[in-house]
Structures
1.
Amino acid sequence: MSEQALQAAVVQICRLLGIEWYHTYDSRRSKKGFPDLVLCGSRLLYRELKTQVGKVTAEQEKWGTRLKCAGQSWDVWRPGDLESGRILRELMEIR
């Protein structure tokens, strides 16, 4: 599953659950490494989306570390997380 397909699936779940989401349309003019999705329900989730074997870049790790130090929820979601139900569980928690 591609990152684009994973994102489409996550966005669809967000729409069904009434969770607001943000994705930078054209990241070429944005600071490198910012997470793919910001999800807003009862709290914020910052999620980087990767294929099952995709690697997180140094810039993405830096953002993740900074967000976690600031008390935010940052993590990486992969297609296996969709299949296992992890993504749905985490979204249900902020619904």
2.
Amino acid sequence: MVRIRRWAPFSEKDLLLSQGERDVLRALASIGSGDIEQASRVSGIPKSTIASIIESLASKGLVRVERRTRYLYRATGEGLESLRGFPEEILLSILSARGGEAPLSEVEILMGSERASIAIAWARRRGWIEIRGDRVIMTGSGSLEKYREFIARASDGVYQDEAGLSSEEIQELVRRKMIVREEKRDILFEVTEKGYEVLKGLGDVHVVSRISRDIVSGIVGNMIIRPYNVEAEPREIYPAYKHFYVDFLEMLRDIMLSLGFDEIDDSLVVPELWNFDILYQAQDHPAREIHDILVADSPPADLTHYRDLLERVSREHSSGWGYSFDTGTSSRLIMRSQTTAATIRYLYTHREPPVRAFIIGRVFRSDVIDAKHLPEFHQMDGVAMEHGMSLRRLLGILSQITRALGFREVLFKPGYFPFTEPSVEGYVWIEGLGYVEIFGAGLFRPEVLRMTGLEHNVGAWGMGVDRLAMAYLAISDIRELYSPLIDRLRWHRVASYKAIP
């Protein structure tokens, strides 16, 4: 039989503590008050276990809990280096050895230009030196010993209330990267009178929260069986699933593959030759200005392998746009601003039909972040080169893609793009938004075909995938596609497969 003990004057709710709660309460009572790190050291119970149970004990009035945030400072390598002397102290010793002044050039030679600049800045701030012409003149001195003492102690970590420095002095060392600040959150506890009284009545009773074979078979023990709430809802479990935007991109990729397109990839950093020149965009076009594109800080690309291509490009630009083409601009490396740079380079090496290819990739623009713009976003570009390719056939391909995405209707209207003619814009109907533009398309201009060395018509199109996803998923802020908020991610978990009315 099972013996169930009861104590007065406390209620059954007070006494029905889990075994973990009993163990933690005993550990806390062995100290009386303190923090959970102390309790963990004394009891051997992991700190994480104590932290998770202490809230339950507090809700039952057995302990009082207080949270405290403290800042711990640790010395960096730069700080430990300063123990041998701050730069401004070293500067004073140099000036003192030279009668109180020295040429700036000599100081820079002795200390190094970067370290001398730091030393001069801080020595002037402390009122120790003046700069007169090209000479550094000593005007005073002081002691930084308290800083050194603090940094020495901070090698093992020092709390702010133990620092011995003012907040301004500590912030000075932080700005100089001599120390770093770590935030430490402590949980302080104190066992209440009720907690001690409950402990007296616990004795050696063992709390049973699960029915085991030993109990059912009738083994006698000094125990309490915790009641079961059969009406309690089970704990909600969130299964793992893909990020909703990654899910959308993969759905778009699957659609293109199912329509017989080959997926291609290309570098994020490309010469302007592929991003602009071969697409017949003039070198003085406003879209190529430094405030619109991101130029890589690197040497220009080596385009000697494309000498024949550059000659054709130069000829088309010079005759068509009427200016002197600069091959140096063609070799400038930039972060690609359009994925057409990848599809045109693919066509340059795949010149015989049939060719169906697409890319979904990131592009970069010098944009300010807001609800509709990001400096880095996704585009999808596609090309189709077939015998007898025409605008009519291209529109048929685009209709297939939009229907596969779940849109019932697509409307085309004439448009303009620098490297296609004729050109169209594609619109789809989205409930609540009306007709929304989702792509631009057209046939490559003859100039583009001649530069690339193609003898057949090419249908091409591009989609802003982020904005397509916004319309498709009914999102009004583009930043939400990359949101880290777990509740929003759970809400979107199947959004990329929903049907559009």
3.
Amino acid sequence: MLANSEDLLELVEKYSGKVLPSFMTSFVYYDEEGRSSPPHVDNAFTAITVMLMLKHEVPTYVIQKSRSVVYWSNKERFDYVLDEGEISIFFGVSALHGRTPVSHGEKVYSILFSFRPKELFN
């Protein structure tokens, strides 16, 4: 299982330091026009998130597809789009983040794997 794999753990630790899995895995999907994730921060138990893009279907008539966003206090909002199979690793406990609304006919499917810093929970 990917959620319990040593490869995923090693990849997360490469960028965030020693971690423990939270054993919180979420399938997240946006399949209706307007669905989004308002700006939020995560809790300490799910402090570090790995988002794996499974599928992002976008009809040809959609001008701008939905995006993941990160809000910074000292610079402009950062928008990004993951292709299928790509991941992002971020500290959701300290980074205000979310997703813009999906357009009519657009569908987004991803899996979120959660970790927490090992030093806080030893």
